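RECORD TYPE: inverse folding
INPUT: C-alpha cells
STRUCTURE:
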C-alpha cells in the first residue's frame, strides 16, 4: 500500500508539536505527516490531500490568506484536555476559585466548558485572556493549557495542563478520511482504553493515599487535648475531633458534612462561630465546663477553624509546667554552637571541652562568675553519649546543708518532720543515665563533701532515713568561682574530693582577658534579643571595650539588655550605656575573701566558736546560758555577760550568726572554714 499523506496546520508551534505527536502515535507506520504553524509561517499553498486544522480560527485565517486549495479534504479538530494532565486538577480543593488562562476569550471559555464536561465542576472558574478589561486579583491559582506566558503575575501556583489534544471523534474522522478506520479501529480503542485505565488507576491511587492521609490526620486530631472544629462559611463541618465530640456530648455519630446547627444547640455559641465579623477568643459554658473558644478564619480556603480549650485543664497544665520549670534545667539548653568567641583562649577551652565530652570523666570547671561555666557543662552533656539522659543542675550557694542533702540524696517517708509522704528521690536518682552539674561546689560544707565523696567512690546512693542502697550511673560536672586548690591547702575543701572531681579540668578565661570576643558577643546578644536591624555605634563600642567586665559575659548580657531597653531608635549610642554604678567594679568576691588574711582569735574565742559549731552539729539550741554552763568545766569559764561580748565580736567577724528561734546561734561558712583551717578533719568527725 503506498504511504498516505496528511498535512497538519495549527496556530502555534507548541500546538503543532503536541498534535503531531498525537497523530504519530496512531499513524506513523502508514502515513507521512507534514505539519505547519501559522506563527512559524506556511511556505506553500496546500492544494490537495487530507488537511487537519487545529481549530476553526485556524481555518478562517487560512481562508483569508488563501492558503487552502479547493481540492483539500479538511478535518477541523475538536480538542479536549489531555488525560495525562488531569491529576493535578483533581487534587485542587472543592470550591476553590481558579483562573482559566488561554490566549483568547473564546478559547478560555471553551477550556472551562471542556473541564466541566469532564466532571471538574467543583472548582469556581474565572476565564482569563490577554487584554481583558477587569481582572480578579484575589485568586492565586491558574490553570492553563500551555499558555504559561499569559498567566498574570499575581498568581502563586500555575497548573499547566499542556496544549489540548484532539478528541476521540476527530481521530476517528481522520482515520475514516484516510480509509484506515477498519484497519485501525481496534488499535484506536485499545489506546484510548489504556489511557482511561491509566488515569483511573492514578486516581484510585490518589484516593487511597488521601484516605490513608485522612486516617492519619484524624488520629492526630483525635489525639489533641483540645476540641477542634473546621467548617465553611455556610456551617458545613469538615472536621470535628473526638475531644470536641466529648465536650458537645455527641455520641457515636459522624458529624462530617453536617451543619454546625445540627450539632451545636447553644445559640450564643453558634452566633459566635458563624458570624465572620466576630473575631478573637471567647469563653462559653458548655455543660457546666468553662471553655475558651478561639476562632481563626482561613481566607484562602474560606474555612474557619475553632479550637475549644477547657479552662480548668489549661490552668492545671500551666501549674504543672511551672512546677517542672522550677526544678532548674531538666534538659541541657546549650550546645557548643551557643558558645560565642573567636579568641585563642576561648577556642582552646572549647577544644578541651569537646575532647572531654567524648569521655565519661568527672570534670571540674573553674572560672569567675558569668564566664559560662553552666553553658560549657550543658554543651558537654549535649555532645556526650549521655545526651538523651537528663541534665540536672544544682546551685549550692545559699542552700542550707539539710536542704542540700535532701535535694541530692532524697529521703524516705518520715525521715524528718515535714518529709513528704512516700519519700522523695534525690537528684542523683533522678539524673540516672545523665549528667549532674554541681554549681558553686566550693560552697558546700565538710559534711556534704564527705557524703558526695562517698557517692562518687561507690556510685551508690542511700536516701536520708533509708536502708536501701541504689546504684546510680551519673556523670558529675562541678563548677566553682573559687580557687579550690587554695581551699585544699587551707583544709576547707577535702583533698580527696578535689582530685575525684578534677579528673577532667577546664579553666574559663575571664572576659577582660579576651576582649577581642566583645564584638562577636555584642552582635550575638543584640541579634538574639532584638533581631539584626539594631547596630551599635563606634564610640559606644569603644567605651564598652574599656570596661573590665568583672561580671563577665553575664554582665555584658545585662548591660546590653539595658541599652536595648532605653535606646531611642535602631542605634545603640554612648548615651544608652548605664552609669558607672551599674557595672561590677571588683573581681569576684569569693576570691577576694580567700585573699584576706584570717583574723587571729584569742583561745577563748576559738573555744567558743568550736563549741557553737559542735552544738550546731548535734542540732542543740545554742544560747548564752548554755554556753556559760558548758564553759564552767573548761579552762575558759565565762559568764553569760562575757559570752555576749565575745559573741558580738564573732558576729562582727562574720563567723557566727545570732538567730532567734529554735537554733539560736549558728556558725557561718566563713566560721566553719576558719575552724577547718585550725582543726582539719577532726572537726568533721
Ligand atoms: N561564650 C559565651 N557565648 C554566649 N553566651 C555566653 C558565653 N559565656 C557566657 N554566656 C552567657 O552568659 C550567661 C552566664 O553564663 P553561665 O550561667 O554559664 O555562667 P557561670 O560561669 O555558670 O556563672 P555563675 O558562676 O555565676 O553561675 C548566660 O546567659 C550564658 O548563656
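DESIGNED SEQUENCE:
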Amino acid at each position: 500500500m503506498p504511504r498516505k499523506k496528511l498535512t497538519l496546520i495549527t496556530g502555534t508551534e507548541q500546538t503543532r508539536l503536541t498534535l503531531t505527536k498525537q497523530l504519530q502515535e496512531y499513524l506513523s507506520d502508514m502515513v507521512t505527516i507534514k505539519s505547519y504553524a501559522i506563527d512559524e509561517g506556511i511556505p506553500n499553498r496546500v492544494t490537495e490531500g487530507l488537511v487537519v486544522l487545529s481549530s476553526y480560527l485556524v481555518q478562517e485565517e487560512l481562508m483569508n490568506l488563501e492558503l487552502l486549495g479547493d481540492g483539500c479534504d479538511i478535518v477541523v479538530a475538536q480538542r479536549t484536555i489531555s488525560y495525562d494532565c488531569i491529576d493535578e486538577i483533581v487534587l485542587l480543593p472543592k470550591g476553590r476559585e481558579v483562573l482559566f488562562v488561554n490566549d483568547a476569550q473564546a478559547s478560555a471559555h471553551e477550556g472551562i466548558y471542556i473541564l466541566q464536561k469532564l466532571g471538574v465542576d467543583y472548582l469556581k472558574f474565572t476565564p482569563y485572556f490577554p487584554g481583558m478589561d477587569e481582572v480578579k486579583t484575589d485568586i492565586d491559582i491558574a490553570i492553563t493549557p500551555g499558555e504559561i506566558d499569559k498567566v498574570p503575575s499575581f498568581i502563586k501556583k500555575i497548573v499547566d495542563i499542556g496544549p489540548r489534544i484532539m478528541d476521540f471523534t476527530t481521530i476517528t474522522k481522520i482515520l475514516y478520511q484516510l480509509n484506515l478506520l477498519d484497519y485501525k479501529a481496534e488499535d484506536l480503542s485499545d489506546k484510548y482504553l489504556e489511557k482511561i485505565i491509566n488515569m483511573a488507576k492514578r486516581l484510585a491511587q490518589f484516593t487511597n493515599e488521601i484516605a490513608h492521609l485522612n486516617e492519619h490526620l484524624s488520629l492526630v486530631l483525635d489525639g489533641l487535648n483540645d476540641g477542634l472544629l473546621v467548617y465553611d462559611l455556610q456551617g458545613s463541618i469538615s472536621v470535628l475531633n473526638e475531644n470536641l465530640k466529648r465536650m458537645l456530648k455527641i455520641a457515636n455519630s459522624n458529624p462530617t458534612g453536617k451543619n454546625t446547627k445540627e450539632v451545636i444547640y447553644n445559640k450564643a455559641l453558634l452566633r459566635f462561630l458563624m458570624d465572620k465579623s466576630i473575631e478573637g477568643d471567647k469563653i462559653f459554658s458548655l455543660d457546666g465546663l468553662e471553655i475558651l473558644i478561639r476562632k481563626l478564619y482561613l481566607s484562602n480556603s474560606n474555612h474557619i477553624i475553632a479550637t475549644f480549650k477547657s479552662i480548668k485543664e489549661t490552668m492545671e497544665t500551666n501549674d504543672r509546667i511551672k512546677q517542672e520549670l522550677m526544678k532548674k534545667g531538666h534538659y541541657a539548653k546549650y550546645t557548643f554552637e551557643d558558645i560565642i568567641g573567636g579568641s585563642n583562649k576561648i577556642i582552646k577551652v572549647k577544644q578541651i571541652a569537646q575532647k572531654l565530652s567524648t569521655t565519661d570523666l568527672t570534670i571540674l570547671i573553674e572560672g569567675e562568675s558569668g564566664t559560662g561555666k553552666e553553658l560549657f557543662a550543658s554543651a558537654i552533656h549535649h555532645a556526650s553519649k549521655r545526651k538523651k539522659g537528663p541534665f540536672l543542675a544544682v546551685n549550692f550557694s545559699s542552700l542550707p546543708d539539710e536542704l542540700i542533702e535532701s535535694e541530692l540524696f532524697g529521703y524516705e517517708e518520715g525521715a524528718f518532720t515535714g518529709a513528704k509522704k512516700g519519700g522523695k528521690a534525690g537528684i542523683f536518682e533522678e539524673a540516672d543515665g545523665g549528667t549532674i552539674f554541681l554549681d558553686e561546689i566550693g560552697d558546700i560544707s565538710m559534711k556534704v563533701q564527705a557524703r558526695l565523696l562517698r557517692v562518687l567512690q561507690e556510685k551508690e546512693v542511700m536516701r536520708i532515713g533509708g536502708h536501701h542502697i541504689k546504684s546510680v550511673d551519673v556523670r558529675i560536672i562541678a563548677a566553682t568561682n573559687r580557687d579550690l586548690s587554695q581551699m585544699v591547702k587551707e583544709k576547707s575543701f577535702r583533698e580527696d574530693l578535689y582530685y575525684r572531681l578534677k579528673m577532667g579540668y577546664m579553666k574559663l578565661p575571664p572576659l577582660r582577658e579576651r576582649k577581642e570576643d566583645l564584638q562577636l558577643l555584642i552582635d550575638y546578644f543584640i541579634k538574639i534579643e532584638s533581631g539584626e536591624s539594631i547596630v551599635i555605634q563606634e564610640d559606644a563600642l569603644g567605651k564598652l571595650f574599656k570596661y573590665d567586665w568583672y561580671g563577665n559575659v553575664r554582665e555584658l548580657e545585662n548591660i546590653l539588655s539595658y541599652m536595648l531597653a532605653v535606646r531611642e531608635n535602631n542605634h545603640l549610642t554612648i548615651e544608652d550605656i548605664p552609669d558607672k554604678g551599674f557595672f561590677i567594679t571588683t573581681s569576684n568576691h569569693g576570691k577576694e575573701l580567700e585573699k584576706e588574711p584570717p583574723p587571729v582569735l584569742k583561745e577563748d574565742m576559738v573555744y567558743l566558736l568550736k563549741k557553737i559549731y559542735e552544738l550546731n552539729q548535734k542540732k542543740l539550741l545554742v544560747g548564752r546560758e548554755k554556753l556559760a554552763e558548758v564553759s564552767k568545766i573548761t579552762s575558759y569559764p565565762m559568764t553569760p555577760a562575757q559570752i555576749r561580748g565575745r559573741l558580738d565580736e564573732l558576729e562582727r567577724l562574720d563567723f557566727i550568726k545570732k538567730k532567734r528561734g529554735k537554733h539560736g546561734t549558728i556558725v557561718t561558712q566563713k566560721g566553719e572554714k576558719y575552724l577547718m583551717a585550725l582543726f582539719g578533719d577532726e572537726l568533721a568527725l
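NOTES: Residues 5 and 32 are 5 Å apart (CA to CA).
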